[in-house]
């Protein structure tokens, strides 16, 4: 059975009662098989029964091989042994196309929480939305972060279904595309192009899911709506403040006025070097504040940016933004990063 199903079947063996339950992947027409017998041969017994049941419904031939859609009239002259490597299995719950996925209306949700993080990190809970539930095995699941500290873990818990219309799915997908493009790439043009062409619904089958940010247990539609109305499009200039913001305190930017509530916890790209920065708040400084230089001299921020970068800070009384460079996500499938690297755990969490 292990030759034809990937991931491998799972055995639940109770030697005390002499019972064994075989759980097959969802791609198998038979999901579970139960047997009773001698403890030393329970695996062999349940596998034999599984083959018999699969054969009975036509899933296996008389030679106990998977039934193929195209019959083979003649036996091959050369016998090729089965390779150990199997095709990568992807759960069918994640497989769909965006066009049909956006029209489902009902989505099954799992809350993903990151616990035991360093004090320097404040992760937000995320809602994973799928076209169907993942089964009883994922009602509640927890696992340690590979390569992280011992107390860092991820918990995924089923929280029920939600109703989303097609517009909400598009907004959520655009937000997701924006964030993932930003985390994976650090080139301004590459990221902006990924966001610009997000709306092209993928007709071919692919991996489809939604990641929805949570704030105080509720989906943060305000942040997602702003991210789904990017400044790259002129017709979205009106999206200048959050609907929950009581007082509109507009600050001028290169792309127009935006409220403090929008700029705080945002991602900005500086025009003089096209570098992305994560904004955490505002400094008690403005364009006329003093900036100490390495040689001991002092200049104003206004003069510094004019001399060094050729930029004119027009609105001199506006507060400067407090920002830091974002951390580019690294591909852990490459498995080539040292655990002893400085700041390793914090970068992994980012």
TrEMBL record:
UniProt signal peptide: none
Location of the PAZ domain: 246-337
Residue ranges constituting the Dicer dsRNA-binding fold domain according to the UniProt record: 1-74
Pfam families the UniProt entry points to: Dicer_dimer (PF03368), PAZ (PF02170)
Domain of life: Eukaryota
Xref: InterPro entries: Dicer_dimer_sf, Dicer_dimerisation, PAZ_dom, PAZ_dom_sf
Gene3D superfamilies on file: Dicer dimerisation domain, paz domain
Name this protein carries in UniProt: Os03g0583900 protein
Organism of derivation: Oryza sativa subsp. japonica (Rice)
